[in-house]
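Exercise (ungraded).
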Amino acid sequence: MRSIHIEIAGTKLATTPGAKHGQDLINLGNVVAPEQLVLEVDGDVDIAIGPDDVIVVRGGERFSIGDGSPQLPDNPVMRKPIAATLNDQPLSNFGGGRHGKASVAELVNWAGGGGQDIWIDLDGLADELLQSTDRIVVQPADHFISVPREEEDRLYEVIVILDGEDKARRFPAGMTVLQAIRRSLPSRDRPNVADFEMVDGALGTAALDVNLTLKAAGVRDGHVLSITKKNGGGG
Amino acid sequence: MSAAAIVTPKLAAASFGKAIQPLLTGQERYAQLGVRLVAYAFPFLDVDLDWHAHGRTIRLRVDGADYPYRPVGGWWIDSSGGRLLLGQGPLPSGNGFHLQTQDGTKPAPWFCFTGWREYHDHHGHQDVPWATIRSVPRYAVLQLILQLQRELNKNGVTLA
């Protein structure tokens, strides 16, 4: 996997991108209690990172090390709502985004409650399923999605062929085909997701019904999916 | 008459080879999606496309000469590699699949889809220069082939 750089106390450090526990970064930065690892937030309140917090690093994040005296608040109230989204809507629409961190339980509640999993959409990386006990350090680039929980066949690991590349991806079984297409498309194409269709090579040649869940559509582990435009524009 | 190369064949071979590498190393994945590798020797990639709408396959030759300076060319071929013309075998017609040269004077099937050389050579498509889209992943060679296979099986494409 490619590596990225983050900065801790002015030192550039290499790591892999994705969701990490605070403890991983605390170890990386050699932060020793009572010191606190702190995410620098431009134009707003900085956020102290606890060892059990989950934070997504994409490269370029800057952290400082506080001396722990006094201890910074565990979950600060932000000056402005954080522009992260849940199911494509700003967290502020659900009354969230005011604190530096959100628990998965809160996200589930905002998404309507019930038996739902919360995923974080990581551009260019396999999306990650958050644990029900996780608490996330919310950043503007975070995009969360909720998916009905499947007790069996919870995840499908598939290959998606798009734009000349094969990518291994993990999708929740309860995700709809439309959601899976959307997650696979580059950001610029996502608003036009309805222009695309998905075929599962193991199921034949017909495009999958976008309204079905992957499970109901017949997608399973190891299947090869392709995404093409519904209308190739032949003239 | 053969046209002079614009891009040094070594460079074009490297670029084209890189673009089709996932097919060369993952033939079975593409076969599941209706694209079967037949042969590759630069500049030609030959693949069989499942034409399930008509219960058959058709062989496509993709020409990577001068790629990526020029888009890839494409035409239908028979089992010995000769260009397939109307009357020599089943050909798709309609919805972007044409049977005559662009001026309509000679039989020469071609297809009219963005990203293919014949599309960009057409006088009516000079508003979408290849140079402006060649780095767009949607026009990657393998995506063009997969999209072509889907188009081949759409309603409105008939057997000629």
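Further reading is listed at the end of the chapter. For now, observe: Residues 9-25 of chain B form the longest helix (17 residues). The CA atoms of residues 93 and 158 of chain B lie 5 Å apart.
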